[in-house]
Amino acid sequence: MSGRRPTGSGGFVKVCGLTQEQQIDWAIELGYDAIGVVVTPRSKRYCPPERAVALADHARGRIPTFAVALAHEETRAVAEHFDTIQVYEMVDIPNLALASGTPPEHPEALDYFFYDASTGSGVFADIPEWVKDVPGRVVIAGGLDEYNVAGVIKTFAPYGVDVSSSVETAPGIKSREKMAAFIAAARSH
Ligand SMILES: O=C(O)c1ccccc1NCC(=O)[C@H](O)[C@H](O)COP(=O)(O)O
């Protein structure tokens, strides 16, 4: 471990898969710590480059932004507009959030490690014990909702949590009410 990154529960709460400027405004109003825009065309929440950049511009200076894709290549057209690049492969960039369902080989090289076996599917599965031992900023994602998030935080004491499906009414269509319920539950711990 590098020692330059914090460990333990940081209260970080990210909402992912935003597609509209209004959803960013809601995230800020509700006190979320970061937003994610999905830029892989393999997602049902896909934002093409022009839309993704418009969202990043809307968020800039107001809330940290993550460009989310399965492969690093898929982020190239928009990367310079986002604070952090969240991908499911190890790459040598300074602002990497590696997402994976398996332990990272080089956690010291990461800005964040997302334990995410879901890739936006909304399916919750048991979280392995090794997640507790990953150093640095560990964010847990995958089927979290207003009912299970406090228990996950209590058990794993992660740096943060991430949500998408459970705060939607349809893919990419966030509900302000559901977003409010999720962050209230996450903050209740
Ligand atoms: O959200 C997507 O459609 C997606 C597609 C491909 C790669 C990653 C994707 N989302 C990543 C996220 O950060 C989600 O917030 C995370 O997987 C949790 O999603 P959910 O289980 O729906 O809460």
UniProtKB/TrEMBL annotation:
Domain of life where this protein originates: Bacteria
Keyword set, alphabetical order: Amino-acid biosynthesis, Aromatic amino acid biosynthesis, Isomerase, Tryptophan biosynthesis
Catalytic activity: N-(5-phospho-beta-D-ribosyl)anthranilate = 1-(2-carboxyphenylamino)-1-deoxy-D-ribulose 5-phosphate
Pathway: Amino-acid biosynthesis; L-tryptophan biosynthesis; L-tryptophan from chorismate: step 3/5
Domain N-(5'phosphoribosyl) anthranilate isomerase (PRAI) as annotated: residue spans: 120-184
Keyword Isomerase on entry: yes
The protein's name: N-(5'-phosphoribosyl)anthranilate isomerase
